[in-house]
Amino acid sequence: MNRTLLTTFISTIAISLLPHVAHAKVESSLKSTRGMAVYSKQADVIGAVHMNKYGLAPLTAVIDIPNWRQGIKDVSILVKGKGQSGVDLEYKVSAAELLHHSGIPVFGLYPDHTNQVEVNWTEDGKQRHHTYKMRTGPVNFTPQANSWANHPQGEAKMVADDRFKDRLYLVDGFGDGAKRSLVTHNNPAAAGAGLWDRSPTLMIFDTNGDVRWYMDYKNFRDAEHYRKTGYVMGVKQVGKDLVWGAGQSYHRMSLMGEHMWSRPLPGNYADFSHDIHHRPNGNMIIRVAKKDYLNSHGDMVTTVRDIIIEVDPNGKVLHEWDLNKILDPYRDITLLGLDMGAVCLNVDTEKANQTADAEQLKDAPYGDIPGVGTGRNWAHVNSVVYDETDDSIVISSRHQSANIKIGKDNEVKWILSARGGWKGELAKKVLQPIDAKGQKINCSESGRCPDTDQFDFTWTQHTAYIGKDSGERYFKLFVLDNGDGRFNEQPAMPEDKYTRGVEYVIDEEKMTVKQVWQYGKERGYEFYSPVTSITQYMPDKDSNMIASMSTGLYAGKTVGKIVEIPHGETKPAVEIWVHGNAPGAPGYRASVIKPPFAM
User: Please, what is the Cα angle at 548 between 542 and 554, to 5 degrees?
Assistant: First the structure.
């Protein structure tokens, strides 16, 4: 073997051994220069392929652009679908993204597969094309759970409508690990919700039910570190990135796996869970709790899911909404009708369909336990959104079966809930239901209305988000009505329960509410989720996304059922099921994810 061939051979081997680097068929494009292997300027191969370049997103890659090839532009990517039913993912890559990565970012690879990735670009005035072969490993969240069978699995229940074929859904689930943290606050007798802890399984599924992305969360979690425990919740896409919270911190990371920042909750705020909302100005609205809080009995407690704060882009607190002062922490009508077998993620099947009495709620120990009074789980706020039109927040309070709008002056603007149990000034803020003709609907104090197809309240709901064309007077609200404790009681037969997505129009001047759309009631118990779940209006496709994430919970075969429906219609354009890998929900929520590179 002559010296030139030997040098080329050794250099090629050296490239193949670089960490996280793969390369396609480049042998014919290599030539020797001072003992280093480089790409020919005439080659259609652009550069080396760095698999999982940033270390946190194993199903991503970056195709390196050498410095002497900076004229590359108009880049588009096509990740070919796997098999006959696989979904092609196609997207353009902006010039800014090429500069940021010093290469071409690739997103949406299949796990445990040799992916065919077609790259098209313009260079020196010519159209160029190359197909890369990128091999990925299997899904691997933890060293103890290497098998794909140990993780949530997707299943397409229909062929997606062509307009929705390219949809991607992120499911924030829970994998192996302790359900209770090894560390806690400095007041163990009033630990709040600080003991929640479990390893997450953050995955993106396409409309064929195939995994196209997952996060390697090991770098974020440490069961023995106070600020690195907690359930991952409230995952939102903000531009090209994901924002979420867990326990005592909140985080931002790009979908390519670049860790932007992690921040501790400020001051005495603690126990993030459920939701974080990102405002257009960069501020964030975060659902937290508070440590060392002196309640009305003179006890020093940690509050439970009942404080909301606004922070600026640097994490400085700008405002606080303390629901212990704004609402009534002793209103118990919803708690008396609550299924004690499933209280959010505290699931005890032995207590299924059982209820608590008033004395139990009053005398419950402090902590993450249903009960009345500050220091117990009386509010359980599981979503928050900011209305930019009037500087207000809208919250979903599961344990009050109420959706509530509150201004920056900390005054309640309206309450969408059954009237029972509301007192004083709060009773004046309860909305009046009306029918399609604007006539009043007379519902009982417990919330039973004459025709529940025409109007019903939401019960132990999750997520109350802003709907389509919401305005200054007519506020559109889209809610996931879980349906436990409907009419503030348990039904004679558990199978009578159902979960639905429901849309309301609220006239904020007349203080009325009208139901204009629902989906899920017609599916009955099969679609029922006692806990978790989400619904959200998606303006890009004028559609409603509903994820009923804990169906079959008591049967031990939990399935998350995700549908997306054109707005105003009742026939899904997409339906995929995500099957749980262990007892409990396969995911807390699901959310639509958009390929991040053309933004």
Answer: 175
Q: How far is CA 241 from CA 20, 233, 238, 248, 253, in A?
A: 22, 15, 5, 20, 6
Strand partners, 404: 395, 415
Query: What are the Cα distances from residue 148, in Å, to 72, 126, 140, 175, 414?
Result: 38, 43, 7, 12, 47
3-state secondary structure of 107: strand
Annotated catalytic residue 297:
no
- Rounded CA-CA distance 173/145 in Å is 15
The pLDDT value recorded for residue 5 is 41
Asked whether residue 230 carries a pLDDT value surpassing 90, the answer given is no
Residue 29 half-sphere exposure toward CB, CA atoms < 13 A:
16
Question: CB of 335 within 8 A of CB of 399?
Answer: yes
Mean local confidence (pLDDT), 398-406: 98
> With 70 as the cut, is the pLDDT of residue 149 above it?
no
As beta bridge partners, residue 285 has 277, 310
Q: Is 48 exposed, middle or buried (0-12, 13-18, 19+ CB in 10 A)?
A: buried
Cα atoms found within 13 Å of the Cα of residue 303, Cβ hemisphere only = 28
Give residue 554's pLDDT band: very low, low, confident or very high (50, 70, 90): confident
Task: From residue 153, give the alpha-carbon distance in Å to each of 206, 217, 313, 462.
Answer: 11, 18, 36, 23
Helices and strands, number each (H, E), in the chain: 6, 41
Catalytic residue among 23, 251, 278, 462: 462
